[in-house]
């Protein structure tokens, strides 16, 4: 957790200003960034569920956005340790352990376990992508 927070803070205090200078005058980008910042907790929590965004890279990316530090930390905790740690992640780890065997106690073969794990991850990714897309569209509508 400490390393993740340090990555966020490095990106925030050493790179965010450069990003803002690069996009200066780009009203769409700034509106989307503002919308993501205002919904930081939800965005971070949902994107923590996605297996397509590596956790370490996500920490830096959140630091580049206007997501505040406390919503970032809380979203990370809920998305990873609390919700995932006792819910989806436990299921995925359980399935992963059993996928090393011929057949799990659920009667699923090794290939089915892997497909189920992949399917759950892709579902989480789709939900996160839909939410962030909706935020972006609403933010662009507001400036037009």
What is the gist of this entry?
Helix content is 80%, strand content 0%.
Give keywords:
single chain; mainly alpha; 8 helices; 80% helix
What does this protein look like?
The protein has 144 residues and is an all-alpha fold. Helices cover 80% and strands 0% of the residues. It contains 8 helices and no strands. Helix 3 crosses helix 8. It is globular and about 50 Å long. It starts with a helix and ends with a helix. The model has no long low-confidence stretch (mean pLDDT 80).
Portion of residues in beta strands equals under 5%
What is the alpha-carbon Rg in Å?
A: 18 Å
| Helical proportion, percent range | over 70%
Q: Per the principal axes of the C-alpha atoms, what is the gross shape?
A: globular
- End-to-end separation: 39 Å
Poorly predicted ranges: none
In sequence order, what are the helices and strands, one letter per element?
Answer: HHHHHHHH
Structural class: mainly alpha
- The number of helical segments is 8
Strand segment count:
0
The major pleated sheet works out as: none
Give average pLDDT, whole number. 80
Question: What are the SSEs and their pairings?
Answer:
Blueprint: H1 2-14, H2 16-22, H3 27-38, H4 40-48, H5 55-64, H6 69-86, H7 88-99, H8 110-143
Helix pairs in contact: 1-5, 3-8, 4-6, 6-7, 7-8
